[in-house]
Amino acid sequence: MVGIIGGSGFYSLFDDAERVAIDTPYGPPSASIAVGTVSGVPVAFLPRHGVNHEFPPHMINYRANLWALRETGVRWVIAPCASGSLQAHVRVGDFVVCDQYVDRTSGRRDSYFDGPEAVHVSAAEPFSPMLREILVRGCRELTIPVHDRGTVVVIQGPRFSTRAESRWFGAMGWEVINMTAYPEAHLARELCLSYANISLVTDYDVGLEGMPNVPAVSAEEVAAVFARNNASLRELVFRVVPQLPDEPDPHCAGALDGARI
Hints:
The protein is of the alpha/beta class. The protein has a single domain (2-253), classed as Rossmann fold. The chain is built from six helices and eleven strands. The protein has helices at residues 62-72, 129-141, 163-171, 181-190, 219-240, 250-253, and strands at 2-6, 18-20, 33-38, 41-47, 76-85, 95-97, 100-104, 146-147, 151-155, 176-178, 194-204. Strands 1, 2, 3, 4, 5, 6, 7, 8, 9, 10 and 11 form an eleven-stranded mixed β-sheet that branches. Helix 1 (62-72) crosses helix 4.
């Protein structure tokens, strides 16, 4: 089964779906899971922030969300999220299929392994190369402007960055910024789920304001970009889900090999 975690502005995938409520050892997930099919492939959809966007990024129960998806039978997770651009060449409306993240969050429950067993899962390649390749190819087939790699810096929220912070992130060469890619990506890896982030660029982060070749973006324009991005995202999901292989993803299947001390 394929799991889709909907981000800001993307709260539903199916017009008619079975709702599945799952209890987890970590409490309730953000919402019940909507289960349907795409081209005959079973798909589970979970809105990351809840159906009414009631959970801000720092209050999301990430552990429950990923656990519930796995209990539903999910093995592949496509995880879009609204993001700001940190680089002038990453334009509003672009998709970035990230290959790295930088964690700037604090206090989030970011592991299933709280002892007494010590487990250290590698994060050198935090996102599935196979799933990323399929998503990038799907974007190009649909002529969605896409960057085939990039680093997302994940901040705690709910506040946005200061201008100094944003310029620092950009100076480091990181491409996009959001509030939810961590710990979601690492928790998926601990559960041996194949996971990929798609950062949907809605605006330029504050550190780019006033810089050459960076146009100002109004609130109305951001709302319009949200709508366009989510329409393109829906097309992408329906395009790539039938292309996912039946065999396990080698990147995630052995994530726990050698991780236990």
